[in-house]
Amino acid sequence: MERSELEADGDRQSESADPLPLEPVVEPRVACPECGATWRGDPGDPCIRCGFDPHPPTPAAATAASVEPAPAASTVSPDTALPRPRTLGRWLWGLGLIALAVPAIGALAGARGLVPASDPVDWPDRIETFARGPLLVGLWGLSGVLALGTVAWLRARPLGDPAVVLGRVLAVVAVGRTAALIAAPWPFVEFAAEALLQAAVYAGGLWLLFRLAWRDVFLTLGLTVGVFMVLSAGAHLITWIAS
Q1: Domain locations in the chain as residue ranges
Q2: Which is deepest, 13, 36, 51, 114, by most CB within 10 Å?
């Protein structure tokens, strides 16, 4: 069967038609107004030789780009830590050492109020009282540091250097320990007077050295007594088990 004339005419046209030539896309040549260098590219691009920028940034944008962000300020101020800068320095250490030495000398001398009343005072009692003094100061000091740490945690405040805190608490406790030199004819009166004076010295030292609010002073005082009772009971239990 012969093909139709229309199909035959279409075949002849497709065979005789030449393909269209592909012309490359040529970018325009750009000349630098500063150094005269030429290249093909976008007229808004910087010069490839001298770096001239036909569209420089605005002064406001350049200033914003050149200014570095300031470092974030620390959220913890030195005044927020419990050991405030207002301290007695070396005077505090000297006062603590003197206060620690006075009861020790009094114990060796057989001072009334420190050693059991007897005539004459036995040397074993003097030695025992002499050795018990620093142990009590250390135990009270450790209790005070733990109490201050608890208050700092409750108030979301940094405790500061633990060694500095311990030194200040020990100095305050040593000063209050001198109240043990009080002698009274009635044991209950003597104990009450010593306890009240030591509590007053300890509370005043907390306020002076750590600048605590008075509610925190009394809270720290109560926690210190509680921790001391727990530690003292534990020490007596260990001694009883060991013996």
Answers
A1: 85-242
A2: 114
